[in-house]
Amino acid sequence: xxxxxxxxxxxxxxxxxxxxxxxxxxxxxxxxxxxxxxxxxxxxxxxxxxxxxxxxxxxxxxxxxxxxxxxxxxxxxxxxxxxxxxxxxxxxxxxxxxxxxxxxxxxxxxxxxxxxxxxxxxxxxxxxxxxxxxxxxxxxxxxxxxxxxxxxxxxxxxxxxxxxxxxxxxxxxxxxxxxxxxxxxxxxxxxxxxxxxxxxxxxxxx
Length: 206
Known about the structure:
Number of helices: 5
CATH topology: Rossmann fold
Radius of gyration: 16 Å
Shape: globular
Structural class: alpha/beta
CATH superfamily: Alpha/Beta hydrolase fold, catalytic domain
């Protein structure tokens, strides 16, 4: 928890927003978005969480799992190996802020989104009420409707994470009866734009 960045931590938080950065990045990369959320919801705790392992792609960044040599076959195994640690990080911040799953939102970018979305396909209780994916994907297509609401946002110019995987996941989730939204942005690459942030903030205000 020590390398994570606390953007807002009111004494009695009414909600907890946890932001998870991409592979090779740091919590600083999500501070602009975190500050917008904190400005909109001053009674909420807003934390940009640091992944636990030094990145093997960037000397200054962090990761949940290595993407060196990653494949469709191996990705789920790498995620599963660190999923318990990911859940524990969520619970640690819930304990620190006094918030429970019913008022916790997970917002993941890229690998942070992969981890957050993977959580929704596990058995047992999900330690959140809402999951937001920015430029992310499911490791494999979802096979059940999670008991949380999902917001999927992706740029069609993303050269790192194929937006069509998000489209496919959305269609699958709809068939499964999930509470899910999809927003695609024609001119957005593998990043977070002002229009995308505005759409996200609108969702979070509901």
